[in-house]
Amino acid sequence: MTQPHRIDVHHHILPPSYVNAVGEEAIGRLLVSGKAPQWTPEISLDVMDRNGIEKAYTSMSAPGVADCSESETTEIVRKFNDDAGVMRKSYSGRFGTFSYLPLPYVDAALKEISRVFEEIGTDGICLLTSYGDKYLGDADFVPMFDELNRRKAIVFVHPDSGPCSCNIGNVPAATLDFPFDTTRTIVSLMMGGIFQRCPDIRFVFSHAGGTVPFLVDRLSRLERIPANKELLQAGVGNMLRALYFDTALSANKYTFASLMEFADPKRILFGSDYPFAPEDTTTASILGLSQLGLSDEQLLNIERNNSLSLFEESLSKM
């Protein structure tokens, strides 16, 4: 077995306290498999070792914590972040952490930002693309983003089914809703002025940014609307190319061609989506990347070096 070298920025965990609080059915109904995956830290490590992954940055996935009171949401999120923090410290550098926030409760989220950065230790923050009927560019979330910008945080954004869910029979949210919810929240952040207001946040978007690479030219036409002139004066393409994107479920010739044509190649990061995408998908993604005609340098950058640069830069700015 070769020495693990890959860095995985899209790796979920399912601590028992979280699964018990949210329910296996709620977790599973969003997925192609239809059921919550079995998970322990040891299972993750075995998969990482078999697939040459040196380190995984862990996060919560959809459905997050939904339909709970502020106190219930805060309690569930705090326990999840505590469990992730223990993993981060206990496994000799194998796990990093994107801590989750108790949204849509912004005051609680601000308190949790302080707690995870100053008491537990974290590598960044995980957000879902939408909460209730609000995408991330909603004005209610501005105080949270101002604080994350002050901390020069890395913010990993994972899709949820969102308020525009298609509800087509036998089509789980992960198939259609996830990429489109990612697209909508990226546009909402841009049109809500968050990218412009918070330039020190490093945003990482899942699954190659949803449909953004395919739609970037169409989105650039927003610059022609007179009311958008000042907001978009930096240029839509320039703002979108400043974002980071992971390769989860996207290491194929159709998606990746569009991503490589559009994105800054130094801002493309390896992601597995394990365990919500099973191990055979992780293995297939690694094989897929190797078959896309990338140079050895490009492949190593995506699998490792781009993430090293992102997290080293983050440490130097904090």
Describe this structure in words.
The protein has 318 residues and is an alpha/beta fold. It has one domain: Metal-dependent hydrolases (TIM Barrel, Alpha-Beta Barrel), CATH 3.20.20.140. The protein contains 13 helices and 10 strands. The protein has helices at residues 16-22, 24-28, 41-50, 70-90, 106-120, 142-150, 177-191, 194-197, 212-220, 236-241, 253-262, 279-290, 296-317; strands at residues 6-12, 53-59, 95-100, 124-128, 130-131, 134-135, 154-158, 202-205, 244-246, 268-269. The strands form 2 sheets. Strands 1-2-3-4-7-8-9-10 form an 8-stranded parallel beta sheet. Strand 3, helix 5 and strand 4 form a beta-alpha-beta unit. Helix 4 (70-90) runs parallel beside helix 5. The chain is globular and about 55 Å long. 45% of the residues are buried. The model has no long low-confidence stretch (mean pLDDT 94).
How is this fold's topology laid out?
Blueprint (H helix, E strand, L loop, with lengths): L5 E7 L3 H7 L1 H5 L12 H10 L2 E7 L10 H21 L4 E6 L5 H15 L3 E5 L1 E2 L2 E2 L6 H9 L3 E5 L18 H15 L2 H4 L4 E4 L6 H9 L15 H6 L2 E3 L6 H10 L5 E2 L9 H12 L5 H22 L1
Parallel strand pairs: 1-2, 2-3, 3-4, 4-7, 7-8, 8-9, 9-10
Antiparallel strand pairs: 5-6
Helix pairs in contact: 4-5, 5-6
Specify the overall morphology: globular
* Oligomer category: single chain
CATH architecture: Alpha-Beta Barrel
Backbone structural class: alpha/beta
Q: Give the total of domains.
A: 1
If helices are DSSP runs of H or I spanning 4 or more residues, what is the number of helices? 13
The portion of residues forming beta strands comes to 5-15%
Could you list the spans in which at least 5 consecutive residues all have pLDDT below 50? none
Query: How many beta-strand runs?
Result: 10
What does the largest sheet look like?
8 strands, parallel
Helix share, percent: 40-55%
| Overall mean pLDDT | 94
